[in-house]
Specification:
Blueprint: E1 12-15, E2 18-21, H1 50-57, H2 63-80, H3 85-101, H4 103-107, H5 115-137, H6 141-161, E3 179-180, E4 183-190, E5 193-200, H7 205-217, E6 233-236, E7 260-261, E8 270-271, E9 294-297, E10 311-314, E11 334-340, H8 342-347, E12 354-361, E13 366-367
Antiparallel strand pairs: 1-2, 3-13, 4-5, 4-12, 5-11, 6-10, 7-8, 9-10, 9-11
Helix pairs in contact: 2-3, 2-6, 3-5, 5-6
Length: 372
């Protein structure tokens, strides 16, 4: 079945010295249907690194670990800005200072069961700062990037160890749907290579739960990508035959998934209404469309709650776009990001296939639905 798409995509507009990405949707991305605490991300340009977005999306409240995270993330910014080695050296010193002087404060947010793991991670971070400092002193760009990335992976693990409980109650109206009460890692094997993504149930438990359940069932295995319009999205999930979504074998009914968007500062997601229709034009989602490889639920053009199995990869990275200016945000449910294999994603076109998709971590976080 032919899928409806973007009616218009206005690329870049200049406003003064700032480039703004403006996405104008008429019917939107179609699914093929016939006619607790959330840390606020820093202001400024949109964060385009999916791993960083996932770190900020964790439901934790620990200032020192965010200081550590930001100091290491800023290194990449400085390297792109003509290798400002003085500023990079300051970032490294800040990270050293946090780990040296604020270890106790870091551990205060860690549940007792995770204390040993967190202490081991802090030790690894301290040890890893030595080779980073050496690379910075040598002004070795490649080694600096490599050491920084390894340290940020450890920071991610430390932050994950701080999560205590699932941060909110999902409305009982969605108890008939799978829910992901945490995170899961998905490995896609495609006709062009492998892609790894993390889906975030802390921010989108119903959307992510539906997706993980379908991956578990092998629903996506062998399905082709059905469109690659204007190179901005790559969509998949239209099953063979007359159906345009997932028919639950237990209920024999089309499984519809509500629009689900967690806004920065909110305690729980907004359901069944776009942020635009809710009058929240300036509010920023915890999971925005600012990273190449964002995963989002496709849906019928005018029905925010008609999504089922079809999803899309976002294939545009507006690095210079100020945070909150992408008009896709709040209209579609983002539920994760590609963390590895972006070079494979760049090569995929309509007709290429997902040979297999599997959950390689986090399946234990999937809560099965209540079915009467």
């Amino acid at each position: 079945m032919q899928l409806q798409g973007f009616d218009r995509f206005k690329d870049w507009l200049k406003t003064g010295a700032t480039l703004l990405l403006v996405v104008t949707l008429s019917l939107g991305l179609s699914a093929g249907v016939a006619a607790s605490p959330t840390t606020i991300m820093p202001a400024g340009n949109a964060i385009t690194d999916g791993k960083a977005l996932l770190r900020y999306a964790l439901p934790i409240d620990n200032t020192p670990v965010r200081e550590l995270q930001r100091s290491l993330e800023d290194i990449a910014t400085q390297l792109r800005a003509n290798r400002r080695w003085g500023a990079i050296a300051s970032d490294v010193k800040k990270a050293i200072s946090v780990l040296r002087d604020k270890e106790t404060a870091l551990l205060t947010s860690v549940p007792e069961a995770n204390q040993a793991q967190a202490q081991a991670l802090i030790t690894q971070l301290k040890e890893g700062l030595d080779p980073l400092q050496t690379a910075v002193e040598a002004k070795d760009k490649a080694q600096t990037f490599e050491q920084r990335s390894a340290l940020l992976d450890l920071v991610s693990q430390l932050e994950e160890s701080m999560v205590k409980d699932f941060p909110f109650e999902v409305p009982v109206a969605y108890n008939n749907l799978p829910q992901l009460k945490g995170r899961a890692t998905i490995e896609f094997t495609t006709s062009k290579g492998k892609i790894t993504a993390i889906v975030d149930g802390y921010s989108a438990p119903v959307t992510a739960g539906n997706f993980v359940d379908l991956v578990k069932r092998g629903f996506y295995n062998g399905l082709p990508f059905t469109r690659s319009e204007e190179s901005y999205v790559l969509q998949i999930g239209d099953p063979p035959g007359p159906e345009v979504g997932f028919i639950d074998p237990k209920t024999k009914k089309y499984r519809a998934i509500p629009l689900e968007v967690l806004v920065q500062g909110d305690k729980e997601p907004t359901y069944e209404i776009t942020l635009e229709d809710a009058g929240r034009y300036k509010d920023q989602p915890v999971l925005p469309f600012s990273s190449y490889g964002a995963l989002a639920m496709a849906r019928p053009g005018e029905d925010p709650n008609g999504g089922s199995s079809q999803f899309f990869f976002f294939l545009f990275e507006p690095e210079l776009t100020p945070a909150g200016r992408n008009l896709l945000d709040g209209r579609y449910s983002v539920f994760g990001y590609v963390i590895d294999g972006k070079e494979v994603l760049e090569q995929l076109r309509a007709g290429d296939k997902i040979e297999s998709a599997k959950v390689i971590q986090g399946l234990d976080q999937l809560v099965e639905p209540d079915v009467a």
